[in-house]
Write a structure and sequence with these properties.
Two copies of one chain form a homodimer. By secondary structure, chain A is an alpha/beta fold. The first copy, chain A, has one domain: Queuine tRNA-ribosyltransferase-like (TIM Barrel). The first copy, chain A, has 14 helices and 17 strands. Chain A has a nine-stranded parallel sheet with strand order 4-15-14-13-12-11-7-6-5. Chain A has a three-stranded antiparallel sheet with strand order 1-2-3. A three-stranded antiparallel sheet of chain A has the order 8-9-10. In chain A, strand 11, helix 7 and strand 12 form a beta-alpha-beta unit. The radius of gyration of chain A is 20 Å and the shape is globular. At the A-B interface, helix 3, helix 13 and helix 14 of A face helix 3, helix 13 and helix 14 of B.
Chain lengths: 365, 365
């Protein structure tokens, strides 16, 4: 189980702490994505040094390889497998499965799909998802929800939300252990549908609540408006998690609306493509302008990469396809994201949360 | 300049120390290859922790990208560029250029070649090679020699050796700074030619001596015999370096013949292909037998990888193409190589060098 305490509020923002069996995590926080049991290119110790408190694991990928039973039987938990002794949150696998498109078939029972690895027939359901997540030993499990393809009509959305509510209720029934379980609120970008679904899900009494189905292609303004409207209505005494988000500005904006937790592949994926985050905006390290630039990526950054290496070297590594380019860029970007959430936390504690938007002034909405 | 001291002899083996402007290196030692200014996947601090004392940089690659002038003007030295404050040895670029085959043209002046990157026409000569290596700021420079394609007749070999002697002499004349400069002995696998060339090169008075042109396709027995015969004849008060070698057994055998230094891509390249070195022989981590194996690669190994991760996790990382597979496998293999040379050093200091062969009993000749 987890315990969540709000230490300080400033407007809708909250500075809190999530206590888990694997340690406490100050919030707001960002969770790097360790899809297949590894935050790509970054060692657990380097995650710690970058300020990471909790890591996300993908149920879909780990279910297919190496398999949750192997993780449990061989290692006891995903933590021991990957050498990360901090807390882990696993997603439900639903989002990936629904992204398979024609390879999957949805029924009330669950989702039948074909593995993207070998085409084998597989099945995920609320019960199966919880079983897998519990086998992985996650500290926080996510409920198995339906992610409707957008655009869809209000009727379709309502039908999907109703199924999601039934599925999430089954997740609560399926839970055998004492891991925390978060419910997910759907409803697209309609305020009324979001309110309706939030009421249904909140009534089920989860340990935390997430906003799903955002940052999936809708207009940025729609996402911001939805978060701003719905986040403050989410149960005040539970962590609030905005799934799959986002850019630095997305994070600050959502924190100001009352969100506590985030995950996104952006810092690591963009790092591997040479895009670095700084207080002055993004920087594409492969650009010729950095070829002789002896400055660190960001002179105000204290990450391993910025302490040790110049832009010119990172430019050289990237242009030559060196493994260290991915490693060093990822370490920096993760540090940037964690520094951003830690700075927002400090501002909230000081009652200056609104100033946070200045941290991302270089980033367009 | 460097200073070399032999601390202890045992048979033909020597335990010594090379003092350089960037620190002292106990010998025998192994130099990981940082081809393009990065030992692939491994951070400088991780090299240190694995026991690395000196790193090799490739003149050919660094000359083409980012260019030696850029390194000097932007960073001052290769050390500062790559964040490695220990000593660096650079090769002459000759071996890579000669490997280009039809893309290069040899004259007495030097070698004209086309870059493998963009086809541009380039030129390397003894003078140019030394200029580049000095611009990179290496602690130890290697003389520019000709590497004759094998098989070749004795007459061709002699002609090549004579040119190499002239070229190496030009290298000594070209040196402007106070970096150490090592001469290279050629002569194939003919004892008489090797002796002849060694006499010529030793007379030029280099700061150290290398055996080149071995491990290039000749029979292993020929290489062992050549090293066993020639290494003991190389100047006793200078470091002896066997270039581009080799397997664990190659190292131990050559150390017993009196070699002090080695370099090879084997530990890092094989690591990226999933082949790991252990006292019990090589292990291919992708094999199914390791899928549920909770032991470290080598229970007697103290590297970061073995301290932190199980074979089953490394198997999972490799099979999924994760960057951390290359990182963790490389850290282990480099540690294995440095542990092997450090153990040989200890055995020599204890007068038990001959027992060293037991360290590599699992490796065939």
């Amino acid at each position: 189980m987890i315990r969540f305490t709000v230490e300080k509020r400033d407007g809708n923002s909250r500075a809190g702490i999530i206590e888990t069996p694997h340690g406490a995590v100050p919030t707001p926080t960002f969770m790097p994505v360790g899809t297949k049991g590894s935050v790509k290119g970054v060692l657990p110790q380097q995650l710690r040094e970058a300020g990471v408190g909790i890591v996300l694991g993908n149920t879909y990928h780990l279910f297919l390889r190496p398999g949750h039973e192997l993780v449990r039987e061989t290692f006891g938990s995903l933590h021991r497998m990957i050498g990360w002794d901090g807390p882990i949150l696993t997603d439900s696998g639903g989002f990936q499965v629904f992204s398979l498109g024609p390879l999957r078939k949805i029924t009330e029972e669950g989702v039948e799909f074909r593995s993207h690895l070998d085409g084998s027939k597989q099945f995920l359901s609320p019960e199966r998802s919880i079983e897998i997540q519990e086998a992985l030993g996650a500290d926080i499990l996510m409920a198995f929800d339906e992610c409707p393809a957008l655009p869809c009509s209000d009727d379709e959305m309502v039908a999907s939300m109703e199924r999601t509510t039934r599925w999430e209720s089954r997740c609560l029934d399926a839970r055998k252990g004492d891991a925390a379980l978060f419910g997910i609120v759907q409803g697209g970008v309609s305020e009324s549908l979001r309110r309706k679904h939030l009421a249904e899900i909140a009534a089920l009494n989860f340990d935390g609540y997430a906003l799903g189905g955002l940052s999936v292609g809708e207009a940025k303004e729609d996402m911001y408006r939805t978060v701003a409207t719905i986040a403050p209505l989410m149960p005040d005494d539970r962590p609030r998690y905005l799934m799959g988000v986002g850019t630095p500005r997305d994070l600050v904006t959502a924190i100001l609306s009352g969100i506590d937790m985030f995950d996104c592949v952006m810092p690591t994926r963009n790092a591997r493509n040479g895009q670095l985050f700084t207080r002055s905006g993004t920087m594409n390290i492969k650009n010729k302008e950095f070829e002789r630039d002896t400055r660190p990526i960001d002179e105000r950054c204290s990450c391993l990469t910025c302490r040790s290496f110049a832009r010119a070297y990172l430019n050289h590594l990237y242009r030559n396809g060196e493994i260290l380019a991915a490693v060093l860029n990822s370490i920096h970007n993760i540090h940037y994201y964690l520094d951003l959430t830690a700075t927002m936390r400090r501002l909230i504690l000081e009652g200056r949360a609104a100033e946070g938007i200045g941290l991302v002034a270089a980033y367009d909405r």
